[in-house]
Each structure stands twice: as structure tokens, then as C-alpha cells.
Specification:
CATH class: Alpha Beta
CATH topology: Deoxyribonuclease I, Chain A
Largest sheet: 7 strands, mixed
Oligomer: single chain
Order of helices and strands: EHEEEEEHEEHEHEEEE
């Protein structure tokens, strides 16, 4: 199973999606900072499961309908940062989809996640991640869960890793930095948390017109 996650930088990189799909052939595409009103119903042979509606720039998930059946979908609001309260950039920071593999007859949960911006404390982002994983589990108790996206967590990942492990999940970084716009802020911003998945690799893809590089997660549900 291949999943691409991409922060489109206020929808600027939306024109790259078809090429990404054609080149890497993902089964699921998870987006952040997309203009939900401008999203197409399909990207190649992937269909739109849902996009968040609480604000113009939001989250979206596409999936391969020839492989999966979508059984449920859920948008999740998380504890807000001061930035959120003042500027209201995001009401929903998680979009989760329960998918049924038609051939293997197994269910799994895949989610697109966008943490609070760097102006917030790491402790808030850790709280958001724990809350997101807890809410996603309600889509199906005991199912494999893979949450990918922009975690906005470039430093002190040891604390984050321990938080995720304490929650029963694994944290997997990509093979290269994913944010390159400002040298001082460069780091691994986009990665995966999972349970019930064997993560084979997380590959950082080439830079496009976004300040984030997309990541390609190759994984197998247990």
C-alpha cells in the first residue's frame, strides 16, 4: 500500500497532483492546505473521499476505488493554539477515512493530519497528536491506523516519539528533510504515525512549488 502526503502551501502545488499520481501510483493521497472549493473529484484514478468544510484551506483524502471501498469518514477538530483563536486558519485538523480492501477483505484507517503552526508550543502539538489518534480509533476499534501529514515538529522529536509510543503507536520519519523554505526551520515536518502497519519506508519526494516536499509512505497492514 502506498500513501502520499503533501502540504500544498495554500493550494499552490495543486497542479502537481496528477503528475505525482502518475509517477508514483499511490493508493491513497492525503493533502493539507488545499483550497477545498477548487479540488477536483478525481486525481488520476483516485477519487475524493472528502474534504474538510470548516475553512477554505483544509484537508482532503483521495483513494483508489478499484482497490478500496470507503465505509466511513470523520473530520476532527483539535485543541486550538493562540494562532487558531486569533486568525482562525483551521477548524478541523484531522480527516480520517475507514477503508475496506476489496480483495483482502480487511479494514484500515488512513488519515490526513495538520498540526498547529510553529507559533504554538510542542506540548500543544503532542496533545493534538494524542487526541487525533484517540478519535481515529473510534472509526473502528482495533483496526490498523496510519496518520500522515504536516506535524510541524522539527526539533525535540525524542519527546514526540516517546509520547507516540506511550499511546501504542510508532513514529516513522522520512529519509530526508521535508521543509526547506527557511534554512533555520529546515527539518522533518511531514511524517507518519501508525499502529497495525508494517512501515517499509517513507521517501521524501522532489521539491515542487510548495515549501514542503511530499512524502511517499510504503506500508503493509498486519
Amino acid at each position: 500500500m502506498k500513501v502520499i502526503s503533501y502540504n500544498l502551501r495554500k493550494h499552490r502545488a495543486a497542479g502537481e497532483l496528477v503528475a505525482l499520481q502518475e509517477q508514483h501510483d499511490p493508493d491513497v493521497l492525503c493533502l493539507q492546505e488545499c483550497d477545498v472549493q477548487e479540488l477536483p473529484p478525481r486525481v488520476g484514478d483516485l477519487v475524493l473521499a472528502l474534504a474538510t468544510q470548516g475553512n477554505r484551506l483544509g484537508l482532503a483524502v483521495y483513494y483508489r476505488s478499484s482497490v478500496f471501498r470507503m465505509d466511513a469518514v470523520k473530520t476532527i477538530g483539535l485543541k486550538k493554539s493562540l494562532h487558531d483563536h486569533l486568525l482562525r486558519p483551521a477548524h478541523e485538523r484531522v480527516l480520517g477515512v475507514r477503508l475496506h480492501d476489496i480483495d483482502d477483505r480487511r479494514d484500515m484507517i488512513v488519515a490526513s493530519f495538520h498540526a498547529a503552526p510553529l507559533t504554538a508550543l510542542n506540548s500543544l502539538r503532542r496533545h493534538q497528536i494524542r487526541a487525533a489518534l484517540t478519535e481515529l480509533e473510534k472509526l473502528g476499534e482495533g483496526l490498523p491506523v496510519l496518520m500522515v501529514g504536516d506535524y510541524n515538529y522539527p526539533v525535540f522529536k525524542e519527546n514526540l516519539g516517546q509520547t507516540v509510543r506511550d499511546h501504542g503507536y510508532a513514529l516513522t520519519l522520512s529519509d530526508d528533510h521535508t521543509y526547506t523554505r527557511y534554512r533555520v526551520f529546515r527539518g522533518h515536518y511531514d511524517f507518519a504515525t501508525s499502529v497495525g502497519f508494517e512501515i517499509d519506508k517513507v521517501t521524501t519526494l522532489p521539491q515542487g512549488s510548495s515549501d514542503h516536499r511530499p512524502i511517499l509512505v510504503t506500508a503493509r497492514p498486519h
